[in-house]
Amino acid sequence: MNALAARRRHPAAIAILLMLGLFLTGAAYAAVAPKPADATTQALPAQSVEEGKALFRANCASCHGLNAEGRATGNGDKIAGPSLAGVGAAAVDFQMGTGRMPMAAPGVQAPRQDEIKYTDEEIASIGAYIASLAPGPEVPSEEAVDPTKGDPARGGELFRVNCAMCHNFAGAGGALTRGKYAPALNDVTGKHVYEAMVTGPQNMPVFNDANVKPEDKQDIIAFLHTLDEQENPGGLTLGSLGPVSEGLFAWVFGLGLLIACAVWLGSKSA
Ligand code: HEC
Ligand code: HEC
User: Fold this and answer.
1) Separation between Cα atoms, residue 77 and residue 244, nearest integer Å
2) Are 140 and 88 in contact (CB under 8 A)?
3) Ligand 1 pocket, residue 73 CB under 6 Å
4) Sign, Cα dihedral of 58, 60, 62, 66
5) Each residue's pLDDT tens digit, 215-254
6) 196 lines ligand 1 (CB under 6 A)
7) Nearest bound ligand to CA 52?
8) Is 220 in the pocket of ligand 2 (CB under 6 A)?
């Protein structure tokens, strides 16, 4: 008894009690606190990470390095493939889901390819492997990319402000510098549109959630979806290149026709 009472006055007693209290509160909180809602989607089974790693080594490491650290070609200066740490599962899903990766041949741009040689499971496990290296954007939920849940009119406005300078106001695509181009956006799935925005492939900037909120992204997806549904009522689209090409067409052909008529009438009366 006496010994305990003496220790109670020890200068370290308060500190020890405080630590004990904090520790107990922390442990109790951890035991009862609700788990974060997305913990189940984030914690991918270790098995799929292992599978993804094996698939990655077989199909991607030649360019991206054995541990996705990036790799330079023999000459030393040209990068064969960038480091993939931190690009996230969304980048893998976008690049592989649109057939861009594995890149078929070196070039200024990895183009979209119709034939996808990998199953969804294989793509997901490579995504899990890349996400296990460093945190990055995740593959969006089906709900977040459902075009029927967005407002296409608002999406159109957002598209004209953020995307039209490269992709054209009707999403028809356009040329960029040095032989690169922004592709046409017809029939791209909502998921891939979302992933393009959060990962910014090649020359495209990243539109993170602070710039373009998830609701805005959904509106943009809804807008692009309505473009896909739209038939062109007026015959030829003239490449959907916008008012300039349409104006030029009217100018050259319309005015040309009028001048031709005038010349013809003039020659008749003479
Ligand atoms: C022939 C070389 C080559 C192969 C093979 C290849 N890549 Fe790539 N990869 C590149 C190059 C070059 C880039 C950068 C330019 C680009 O985005 O097209 C790139 C970019 C990427 C990006 C985008 C990174 C970012 O910053 O958003 C991802 C993700 C990716 N590759 C994944 C893969 C996966 C997964 C595989 C295997 C299935 C693969 N790549 C195979 C050359 C390659
Ligand atoms: C600075 C020019 C630029 C801007 C601005 C831009 N993009 Fe892109 N975008 C590109 C380029 C370049 C590519 C091609 C990348 C590639 O091939 O890997 C691309 C690719 C895409 C793709 C993939 C298409 C496919 O065929 O798979 C989608 C979807 C896309 N962009 C949507 C958008 C949206 C939505 C916005 C606006 C929020 C936007 N982009 C803004 C340049 C741009």
Assistant:
1) 42
2) no
3) no
4) negative
5) 999 999 999 999 888 755 555 555 555 666 677 777 888 8
6) no
7) 1
8) yes
